[in-house]
Structure formats: C-alpha cells, structure tokens
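Supplementary Text 2. Reproducibility record for the structural model of the 351-residue chain.

All settings were left at their defaults, and a single model was retained for analysis rather than an ensemble. We include the record here because the model underlies the residue-level annotations in Supplementary Table 4.
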Amino acid sequence: MVSEIVLPHLTRHFSIAQLNHCLFYEWNPKKNLVTKSGPFDRKWSRVMLLISWGYIILQIIGLIISSATPAEKIFPGTLMYLYIACSSTGIAWSADPANLKLMNIIYGSEQRSRQDYDRNSKILSTLINLAYSLLNFTAYVVFPPAIVVMLVILPCQKPLLGSFLLPDDECSRPLFQSICCIMLILRVLLILVEFIQLCHLVVVATHYTVYIMVSGILYVWEETIKVLRFPSSLEGYRDLQVLETILNTSIRFRIFPTLLTVAPTLEILAIFAGIKYHDAIGGIHLVLTVLLALNATVLNVMYCTGAGIVCRKSGEYLRDMKAKVKSKVEKKLLRSYAPLKPSKLAKVGVE
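Retained model, structure tokens:
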C-alpha cells in the first residue's frame, strides 16, 4: 500500500531533483530502482551544500546586527530557520548505501502482487496520499514561487541577499520601477539566485525527511500490520527486526536526530510567529508562516504516529504470544525478540 501510494510522488520528486542537480540519488525507470546520481550531480550537490551554509552564516550575521524591532525580525528569523532546517537535514557528502537499500526495499516492493484493502486501509491510504500531496505542493509549487513574488514586491526582504546588496532607495520600489536598468538586472539576478537556492534546499530536505524517514517508518508500520495479523505464529517477526535494523541504520545517526530537533522547533516558531505577530507581518508573510507551521505539524504527526503504533502493536503481539507458545524453542525465540522501535522514536510516539 505505502509503496503504491508514494511511488508516483517519488518519481515526480526525482524529476524535479534532476532539473536542480541536487541529490546524490536518482530514479532509474528501466530498473525501477533508486541508484546513485551522476558525477556532475554529486559534485554540484557538494558545492551547493557549502554555499548554503555560507549563506546561512551571512543571514545570521545580518539579522544580529539589524536594528529592526523584534516584531520586524520574527518573519526573517522564521525564514532563516527554514534555511537552517533544510540545510541541516541535507548535510551529506555522498550517497549513503543504507539509504539506497532502504529506498529500494520500500519502492521496489510496489511491483509485488497487490491485494484488496478493507475500508480502514482505504481511508488510511487516502490520508497518506493527501499528506504527501500537501508536502509536495507546498515544497515545490508554493514556497519557491512565493519567494519570487515576495522579492518582486519587497526586494530588500531580510535576511535575503537583496537586504545586503540593494541601496535603500531601491527597497521600496516594485521590480519594474527600478531606478535604472542595472538595478533591474541585479534584482532579477538576485531573484533567480534565491529561487534556485530555495528549490535546492526544499528538494534535498523533502528527500531525506519525506522519502526516506517518513516513508521508511510508514513502510515498517505496514509490514508490521501484515505480520501481526497472524498472532498464532512467530514466523515473520525476525524479518520485521531485520527491516527495523535497516531503517535505523539509514536514519538513526543523521536524519532522525536532525529532524527530531528542527521539525518541532520550526513548528513552534512558525505557530508563535503567526499567532503573536499576525498583525505585524504582511499578508504573503503570514501565508508562508501558516504553511510552514502546517507542513511541520503534518511531518511530525506522520513519523511520530507511525513509529509509536509500530512499537505498541509489536509489544502487544509479543505479550500475547507469551501465553500461546508451548515449545522450549519457541519460548527461547520469543525471549530474544523485543518491541520494534524505529530510531528509538517509538516511545515519543506512544506518549
């Protein structure tokens, strides 16, 4: 189910990534597998990673030395944190073999025989599809074009490049009312740079958070439900432990700790900005802030809920099996099993 739902989103995602040359991975339609991207894409990804962090340092310095009031800094601070969150999630210098293996387990399984789903499964599949559609729509269709519109109207929006490079008398002018042709060309170039930079960041962040971590947890959830439908047998639980190990190897040391830090923080910051300073920030700023809060909330709910249910269901299954197993071999085998805990996040999800 998860593979069938997510695969169309994944192929579109890789098509956008290929245009931006921003990932260490690509989709091979002939093999129906995720493979390493080409040499140029890998080199360009490293260059953009360094540029992103250099730009973030510049934004932090600019915001610190700014004489703006706290109300005027709240949206620039939220926007800067979006850049930090995306760049932190996408810190990688090469393709990770564990990520490749996990993605091919998830998305390669779409070719397996399909089964009929009950009503609850259909509702769940619809919700998952809607969540992925929302995340993709805001990441690819809303945020980058919104930055373009914002910079056409507000060329000196802090903490972006225009606030450092454009003269003060240019800041209040719409794009086509620029002082001279040179300023018009400079502003167009700045808009193009910001658009490319943000496209790169959102594609990379979406890849690691949505198509590796969230998809991985949802896939383990689905496989867990399949195995636990047959509570009279221990067969299959070992396969779930192997799948859990592959997932944890892929996300435990970088993706999961980063996402666990930046996603709730971004959610809290965006909600705070939208509620506390909604009168002080402009219309387009407020829309972007609300969408940031919505995206972060959906992301947090998906991976915490999935991990929590996996842990709870597997724990209940093992407790039930203690009363059912009879042979010494099965009892010994059962004692070696533990509840599934994707990246130790399960306790958070259960709570």
